[in-house]
Design a protein that fits this description.
Largest interface: A-B, 10 and 19 residues
Helix content of chain B: 55-70%
Distance between the termini of chain B: 58 Å
Shape of chain B: globular
Structural class of chain A: alpha+beta
Helix content of chain A: 10-25%
Number of domains of chain B: 1
Strand order of the largest sheet of chain A: 2-5-1-6
CATH class of chain B: Mainly Alpha
Strand order of the largest sheet of chain B: 1-2
Strand content of chain A: 35-45%
Number of strands of chain B: 2
Order of helices and strands of chain A: EHEEEEHE
Distance between the termini of chain A: 9 Å
Oligomer: heterodimer
Largest sheet of chain B: 2 strands, antiparallel
Largest sheet of chain A: 4 strands, antiparallel
Radius of gyration of chain B: 22 Å
CATH superfamily of chain B: Ammonium transporter AmtB like domains
CATH architecture of chain B: Orthogonal Bundle
Radius of gyration of chain A: 17 Å
CATH topology of chain A: Alpha-Beta Plaits
Number of helices of chain A: 2
Number of helices of chain B: 15
Number of strands of chain A: 6
CATH topology of chain B: Ammonium transporter fold
């Protein structure tokens, strides 16, 4: 099993969810987060004073998928979240050693 | 009892109880009604108007503390006013301060004061005494102890506001243009008494207490401009009571003040936004509402003395100049007037005092003329009145801050400032 963590532009959330649904990935956790990568921030002006706002609102999606579904999941996410501009976000993949469904104690891929 | 007899009851009462009727002789029901409504409108300016305006401009950890600083004035100043404030402001004392005859509102009843009841006059003036200290709180927002704020404001309203109100509007006051003042200053609704005094005191307070922790290293952005917008629009509406109510009658002068108030606010929105758009590239909501308040401040002393066209000019000037004060001057000198109480009220009030001396017109109030109608003396007196107010406010505020600092300490602990004053001072959170 792999955990796929994706940080995207907030307005792309619906597109990504549609794309994941289309390939049958149903489980996910979504966070409202703030951050920046290369994009840095943008300028805001309040009463003539300029401020650098460098932590921008982003959405983070976490999803754990079986090993054999990792490639298509990443493809779906990257294609649906891409605008081609700086600030589109990133995908991180890591190993997950165990998974348990609380309702009936299903283990690992059966729990996903 | 049928309707017809009901109708004659007041007349019957007059016949039976002449003494009761005499108590209200000379009170005009229309005038009295308008000034009562105006009193309510002026209270609306403090809560929720100013509380929302200021509350929206601070960071979200300080919104309740900021609103409380305005709201508490509605309660605390009322008590001070009832006990001794009204007497010190409007009792007949000397040129600087009122006497003791109205202590505990002794002798303040339904009898006529002009064409309204004395109680109406008293409560209308109270609403001004409430909002004036609340305006200052914008300068030291997000860092002053609540107890220090209470001590400071109690001293400030006693030593600065009550004497100022007496000098400009009270019987025999030094700057009272309508009661033989030595420096007859035209101030219709409080340009000097309310706005210069609070704005200059705000600057001194911001300098004395120092910058907020992290100022200039981290952005301190308004947490909710929607709240500030609602507050500013309520201020605009309430200001009709502030200025048009200051005619103390429902007459043509009230209409003139009403129109002038609205025109100046409108022009100041345009003045601020045009300047901002040219300099910063975008017209902002925060700029628009700040401009409106600047225009309302500037027209306050002028509203009962100038024509609608002059009001447009005053508004445009106030919008542009106050933008400059806030966007450029503040940055240059580096003081942390958190919510621009000085930039808007001190600067706007001074523009108002001076332009009143320029534009006052015989056509609006007979006998009150300014520079443009050949009365250079009035221009000079208004300038001098503004200068006196600057000096009094600055010196006394400095002394009061020293005393308050010695007594209770002005500033919250650094950790409390970081956590936020809502939790540290009020023990609650605005958004959970």
């Amino acid at each position: 099993m792999k955990k796929i963590e994706t940080v995207i532009q907030p307005f792309k959330l619906d597109d990504v969810r549609e794309a994941l649904k289309a390939i049958g990935i149903d489980g996910m956790t979504i966070y409202d987060v703030r951050g920046h990568g290369r994009q840095k921030g943008h300028k805001e002006v309040y009463r003539g004073q300029e401020y650098e706002v460098d932590l921008l609102p982003k959405v983070k999606i976490e999803s754990v998928v079986p090993d054999d579904r990792v490639e298509e999941t990443i493809k779906a996410i990257v294609e649906s979240a891409r605008t081609g501009k700086i600030g589109d976000g990133k995908v991180f993949i890591s190993d997950v050693s165990e998974a348990i469904r609380i309702r009936n104690s299903d283990k690992d891929t059966a729990a996903l | 009892m049928n309707r017809r007899t009901m109708k004659y009851l007041p007349a019957l009462a007059l016949l039976c109880f002449p003494a009761a009727a005499n108590a209200q002789d000379g009170v005009d029901s229309g005038d009295n009604a308008w000034v009562l409504v105006s009193s309510a409108l002026v209270l609306l300016m403090t809560g929720p108007g100013l509380a929302l305006f200021y509350g929206g401009l601070v960071r979200k950890k300080n919104v309740l503390n900021t609103m409380m600083q305005s709201f508490i004035m509605m309660a605390w100043v009322t008590i001070l006013w009832a006990v001794y404030g009204y007497s010190l402001a409007f009792g007949s004392g000397n040129a600087f301060i009122g006497g003791t005859e109205y202590l505990f509102l002794n002798g303040v009843g339904q009898e006529a004061s002009g064409s309204i009841s004395h109680l109406t006059f008293m409560v209308f003036q109270l609403m001004f005494a409430i909002i004036t200290p609340a305006l200052i709180t914008g300068a030291f927002a997000e860092r002053m102890k609540f107890t220090a704020m209470l001590v400071f404001m109690t001293l400030w309203i006693t030593i600065v506001y009550f004497p100022m109100a007496h000098m400009v509007w009270g019987p025999g006051g030094l700057m009272n243009a309508f009661d033989d003042g030595a420096v007859p200053c035209l101030d219709f609704a409080g340009g000097t008494v309310v706005h210069i005094s609070s704005g200059v005191s705000a600057l001194v307070a911001a300098l004395y207490i120092g910058k907020r922790h992290g100022y200039s290293s981290e952005p301190m952005l308004p947490h909710n401009i929607v709240l500030a917008f609602i507050g500013a629009c309520l201020l605009w509406v309430g200001w009709f009571g502030f200025n048009a109510g200051s005619a103390l009658a429902a007459n043509g002068l009230a209409s003139a003040a009403f129109v002038n108030t609205h025109f100046a606010a409108a022009a100041a929105v345009i003045g601020w936004l045009a300047t901002e758009w040219m300099r910063d590239g975008k017209p902002s909501i925060l700029g628009g509402i700040t401009g409106a308040v600047a225009g309302l401040v500037a027209i306050t002393p002028a509203s009962g003395f100038v024509t609608p066209m002059a009001s447009l000019i005053i508004g445009l000037l106030a919008g542009g100049i106050c933008y400059f004060a806030v966007a450029v001057v503040k940055g240059k000198f580096g003081y942390d007037d958190s919510l621009d109480a000085f930039g808007v009220h001190g600067v706007g009030g001074t523009i108002g005092a001076i332009t009143t001396g320029v534009f006052a017109s015989n056509a609006v109030q007979e006998g009150s003329t300014g520079l443009l109608e050949g009365n250079a003396g009035q221009f000079f007196n208004n300038f001098l009145g503004a200068l006196l107010t600057w000096i009094l406010a600055a010196v006394m505020t400095f002394v009061i801050l020293k005393i308050t600092d010695k007594l209770v300490g002005l500033r919250v602990e650094k950790i409390d400032e970081i956590v936020g004053l809502d939790i540290a001072e009020q023990g609650e959170e605005a958004y959970s």
